[in-house]
Amino acid sequence: MRSYTKDMTDRYVVIGNPVGHSKSPWIHAEFARATGQDMDYGCLEPPLDGFAEAVDAFRASGGRGANVTLPFKQAAFRYCAELSARARAAEAVNTLVLDRSAAFGDNTDGVGLVRDLRTNLGCVLEGRRVLLLGAGGAAQGVVQPLLESGVALLVVVNRTAARARALAARFKGVRGGGYDLLEDGAFDLVVNATAAGLVGALPPIPPRVFARDALAYDMVYGCETPFLAFAREHRVRVSDGTGMLVEQAAESFLIWRGVRPRTDAVRDALRGG
Ligand code: ATR
């Protein structure tokens, strides 16, 4: 095994299980090329109970940072001796900085969503009514950044109502519960953070949740989920999560390398544009 020296190319990985489908190695290679950074970015797939051991080994071999994806974001939160405020709010970590004396964890998912909404999709969030579907890891990461963006109302609904209530209770002014909460009220932005689309299912929402000129946003990327199809059927503007994926990656890249890469070409390429 080679020992780490300062002259070696800086190494990063995405850690997940499974991880083979991840677009992160390609995205970061594009960012590195565009910004002239000397770095290498690969994949790490530890066994489900082997996250800490895998990160320890990567760190000991000179690894400088990592992205963390399913199902390890909570394990990464527990692993880190130091955490950013946004990782603490999310209780989940998607970005590890490993070249410090203590492992540092951050969460760039929420800022990635907000940046995609604002900068790429031209969405005004201030004063808007927002509905978040789901209360799992994906939803957890975006509550605080949405609140900080100045929304007027944030409602979280979930199939398991207790999970949404527990998530909402951690934040001031957020309402949470089951889908029966949606009996009235329309929203300017509906974000699907459930895994329903991955199994071809539609969360049980009535079309009246969409206000006039609403945006329906699915965090799943690269496919037309039943949620997006349902919104389109009701003539609601839609977006998948490609932009969020690229923006959260850019924010991680900034944390590691001190330079923010442009995201438009990478986003267009992922969309096949
Ligand atoms: P992730 O980290 O991707 O959020 P997760 O923590 O397993 O994964 O959460 C998945 C989310 O999708 C949950 O909110 C889940 O609802 P439950 O908490 O009731 O399980 C939601 N979900 C999954 N399949 C769904 C479906 N068919 N309809 C509605 N919600 C669904």
Give structural attributes.
single chain; 273 residues; alpha/beta; 6-stranded parallel sheet; 21% strand; binds 2'-monophosphoadenosine-5'-diphosphate
Describe this structure in words.
This protein has 273 residues and is an alpha/beta fold. The protein has 11 helices and 12 strands. A 6-stranded mixed sheet has the order 2-1-3-5-6-4, with helices on both faces. A 6-stranded parallel sheet has the order 9-8-7-10-11-12. It is globular and about 60 Å long. The N and C termini lie far apart (42 Å). The protein binds 2'-monophosphoadenosine-5'-diphosphate. 2'-monophosphoadenosine-5'-diphosphate (ATR) is lined by residues 70, 134-139, 158-160, 163, 194-196, 201, 203.
SS-based class: alpha/beta
Distance between the termini: 42 Å
* Strand ordering within the main sheet: 2-1-3-5-6-4
The low-confidence runs, each spanning 5 or more residues with pLDDT under 50, are none
Largest sheet data: 6 strands, mixed
**% residues in beta strands:** 15-25%
Layout of helices and strands, plus pairs?
Blueprint: E1 10-15, H1 24-35, E2 39-44, H2 51-60, E3 65-68, H3 73-79, E4 82-83, H4 85-90, E5 95-97, E6 104-106, H5 109-120, E7 129-133, H6 137-140, H7 143-148, E8 153-157, H8 161-169, E9 174-177, E10 187-192, E11 210-218, H9 226-233, E12 237-239, H10 242-257, H11 264-270
Parallel strand pairs: 1-2, 1-3, 4-6, 7-8, 7-10, 8-9, 10-11, 11-12
Antiparallel strand pairs: 3-5, 5-6
Helix pairs in contact: 1-10, 5-10
Summed up, what is this model?
With 273 residues, the protein is of the alpha/beta class. The chain has helices at residues 24-35, 51-60, 73-79, 85-90, 109-120, 137-140, 143-148, 161-169, 226-233, 242-257, 264-270, and strands spanning 10-15, 39-44, 65-68, 82-83, 95-97, 104-106, 129-133, 153-157, 174-177, 187-192, 210-218, 237-239.
